[in-house]
């Protein structure tokens, strides 16, 4: 009986504490889930809401504008413009739960205004970044191209490479940086539609120190600007690559990533061309390239060297197969890593990250 009474008193104490927390400030939605599993939901992750006395503000991590509405709260129900926005289910200093339409519950995290930001980095000035968390390293190429599915927002295209010991997992993702009221946010997706939301804690030289809001991980997350190579080093690598045909000497490794089916008119590399050392590359000093299967040209276009000198970027650099990792450069050979889709049989394909040792002809 004493244990039950203690638990009741503890619960009442927690409830009174939660109700006493001030809602004023900005909050960002980090997780949406159905209240009943049979109900479909439209995730609200990335929604930003703000409470200021009798005013309600709304924005999104991928939208620059902030919208203002009159606010009224009655019996834990939040009204904007006399319309029900949602019902406050739980509130404490670290999180807030709001129910929408009795079918969806959304978790919000507070945005802290106490961080000493000082300045911000111009992300247009650099595309190559290392994203460091725990023991993982993810290379991010933050492009200024609009995200193909949201061209009218500030959502931009990102090439994300998760670095493993023998292979890389390369995906097309989206990203953005949002700054408002001395709050700086960095956002990137996982699987294109799940958002990871981070608040900037500090800028330290070329490093951005981040606070994880999505998974509430307490370990430090860092976004580090990659160093550009010197002009002399760039010219040395380019001279090494061009005016030669690089033939496959041997297939060092291949790792299957995904497989599936494709339209019959899609042109893919042949799996046997990879396995039988029949792929060759030519990079010219006019920055055009050709990819051969035996003597047949299967791809061609433009190429350039990345700012950090670690990759060859083909064409626009908007797709994973536009990137060639320069793993090792020797006098007569280079070792490269690349992702491509290969025809298997019928209309099926398999995606490999493969490493080739290429020898100049």
Written description of the protein model:
There is one protein chain. This protein has helices at residues 2-20, 231-241, 271-275, and strands at 25-34, 47-52, 55-60, 63-74, 77-80, 83-91, 96-100, 104-110, 128-133, 136-146, 156-163, 168-180, 183-190, 194-204, 207-212, 221-225, 244-261, 269-270, 279-283, 288-293, 296-305, 311-314, 323-329, 333-343, 348-360. It has 361 residues and is mainly beta. The strands form three sheets. Strands 1-2-3-4-5-6-7-8 form an eight-stranded antiparallel beta barrel. An eight-stranded antiparallel barrel has the order 9-10-11-12-13-14-15-16.
Question: What is the element layout, followed by pairings?
Answer:
Blueprint (H helix, E strand, L loop, with lengths): L1 H19 L4 E10 L12 E6 L2 E6 L2 E12 L2 E4 L2 E9 L4 E5 L3 E7 L17 E6 L2 E11 L9 E8 L4 E13 L2 E8 L3 E11 L2 E6 L8 E5 L5 H11 L2 E18 L7 E2 H5 L3 E5 L4 E6 L2 E10 L5 E4 L8 E7 L3 E11 L4 E13 L1
Parallel strand pairs: 18-24
Antiparallel strand pairs: 1-2, 1-8, 2-3, 3-4, 4-5, 5-6, 6-7, 7-8, 9-10, 9-16, 10-11, 11-12, 12-13, 13-14, 14-15, 15-16, 17-19, 17-25, 19-20, 20-21, 21-22, 22-23, 23-24, 24-25
What's the gist of this structure?
This protein is mainly β and 361 residues long. It is 10% helix and 56% strand. Mean pLDDT is 86; it is low at 1-20.
- Strand order across the largest sheet: 1-2-3-4-5-6-7-8
Approximately how much beta-strand content do the residues carry? Answer: over 45%
What Rg, in angstroms, do the CA atoms define? Answer: 26 Å
User: Can you tell me the residue ranges where pLDDT is under 50 for at least 5 consecutive residues?
Assistant: 1-20
Mean pLDDT: 86
Helices, by number, come to 3
Largest sheet: 8 strands, antiparallel, barrel
* Fraction of helical residues: under 10%
SSE-based structural type: mainly beta
Distance linking N and C termini: 86 Å
User: Number of DSSP strands?
Assistant: 25
Overall outline: elongated
Following the backbone from N to C, one meets helices and strands in this order, namely HEEEEEEEEEEEEEEEEHEEHEEEEEEE
């Amino acid at each position: 009986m004493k244990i039950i009474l203690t638990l009741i008193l503890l619960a009442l104490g927690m409830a009174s504490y939660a109700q006493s927390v001030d809602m004023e400030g900005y909050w960002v939605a980090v997780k949406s889930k159905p209240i009943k599993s049979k109900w479909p939901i439209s995730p609200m992750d990335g929604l930003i809401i703000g409470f200021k006395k009798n005013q309600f503000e709304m924005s999104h991590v991928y939208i620059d504008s902030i919208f203002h509405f009159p606010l009224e709260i009655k019996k834990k129900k939040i009204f904007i413009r006399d319309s029900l926005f949602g019902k406050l289910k739980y509130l404490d200093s670290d999180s807030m739960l709001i129910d929408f339409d009795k079918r969806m519950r959304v978790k919000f995290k507070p945005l802290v205004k106490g961080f000493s930001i000082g300045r911000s980095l111009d992300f247009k000035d650099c595309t190559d970044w290392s994203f460091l968390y725990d023991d993982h390293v993810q290379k991010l190429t933050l492009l200024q191209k609009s995200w193909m599915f949201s061209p009218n927002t500030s959502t931009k295209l990102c090439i994300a490479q998760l670095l493993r010991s023998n292979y890389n997992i390369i995906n097309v993702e989206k990203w953005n940086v949002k700054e408002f009221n001395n709050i700086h946010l960095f956002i990137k997706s996982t699987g294109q539609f799940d958002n990871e939301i981070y608040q900037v804690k500090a800028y330290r030289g070329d490093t951005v120190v981040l606070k994880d809001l999505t998974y509430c991980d307490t370990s430090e997350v860092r976004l580090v600007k990659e160093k550009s190579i010197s002009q002399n080093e760039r010219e040395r690598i380019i001279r090494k690559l061009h005016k030669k045909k690089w033939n496959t000497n041997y297939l060092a490794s291949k790792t299957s990533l995904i497989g599936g089916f494709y339209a019959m008119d899609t042109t893919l590399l042949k799996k046997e061309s990879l396995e039988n050392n029949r792929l060759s590359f030519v990079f010219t000093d006019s920055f055009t390239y050709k990819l051969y299967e035996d003597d047949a040209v299967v791809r061609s276009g433009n190429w350039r060297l990345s700012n950090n000198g670690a990759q060859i970027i083909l064409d626009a650099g908007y797709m994973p197969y536009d990137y060639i990792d320069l793993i090792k450069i020797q006098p007569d050979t280079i070792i490269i890593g690349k992702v491509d889709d290969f025809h298997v049989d019928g209309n099926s394909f398999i995606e490999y990250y493969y490493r080739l040792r290429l020898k100049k002809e």
